[in-house]
Structure formats: structure tokens, C-alpha cells
What does this fold into?
Amino acid sequence: MSQAQDKPDPKEHRTSTSSMLLLLPSDGPGRRDWVRVEHDTRPARLHTNGGREVYPDWDRAHDDAGVLRRCILCGEEHMFRRKRLPRLTGIVVVLAFTLALLSLLGYVGGPIVLGCMIAVLILDLCIWFFSPESLACYGCHAEYRDLMIGHWHTPWNRTMARRFNDTSRPGTRATGDTTTPH
It folds into this structure.
């Protein structure tokens, strides 16, 4: 993967946990820098695809099993898991609503429409169950992909997010800036 690319190459998406993809907080609309980090290494400085330098804090970030416990950018221990749904999910939802609307309005009906709706439902459930999860930080909004996620990391919690939104805006860090200005 070259440093000049704007997005991670989907061909290089790894399902193993040999490296993780770190998506940094956004600096503005449409911009999200990223860097791939090998789990075996603990570099003191990372260079993102957008030319930013990031100084991660590896101290106490992983537990004995190598599972990420804290954000390496801001040191926050409150993180949450989220599903990474592919773009196909939106198309499936629109297709399901279209089939339901056509059936309710009486334009189409019968076993063919029912079979199509069941097929769309099965496709939607498969997308949901087989979508990978990522880990995100409440404090700085960094996202970690392609890594093992500990069972103690829970899904997004509105109360916890509200605590952090009161002290910081998205894209800022509550515990100090860890990147250099560009």
C-alpha cells in the first residue's frame, strides 16, 4: 500500500490480526487519514496516507494477550465496538422497502414477491451477521480495524458518548493533541 493513496486498498484488507488499520479522526469533511500498523511493532512515530505524523502512546495500550485496551492516540480507555456494514446494506434496505411498497399498493403480489422479500431478508441478515466489527474511541473518535476486540468492549453507549461530547468536539482530543499540525 503506497503512502499516496487516499483510501485503503480493499485487496489488502486482511482478516488476520497480523496488522491493524488505524483511521484517524477527521480534520474536515471528506478527509480521514489512515495508517496500517503491524501488531508486532510499536513505532514511536507513524506517517499517515495524508502526510500527517502521529505519535502513538503504546504504554498500557495492550493487555497481556495483545488485545487493545486503550486508544493509542489519546490514551482513553473507554472504547466501543461497532459493526462495519458494507455499502450494499443501503441497497438491500431500499430494495426491501420497494418490494413492500409495491406489494401494499397492489401492483405486484403472490408467491413471487413473497419469495423475493424472503430472499432480501436472508441477504440482509447475512450481511449483518458476517460484517466485521471495529473498535472506536469515545475521546478522539479514532477507529481501529482488523484487530482482536476484547469482550469487555461494549457497543456504543449514549450516556458514555454524551460524557465525552460535553468535554470535546469530534476531531479533537480530550486529553491533548498527539498529532503535529500540517
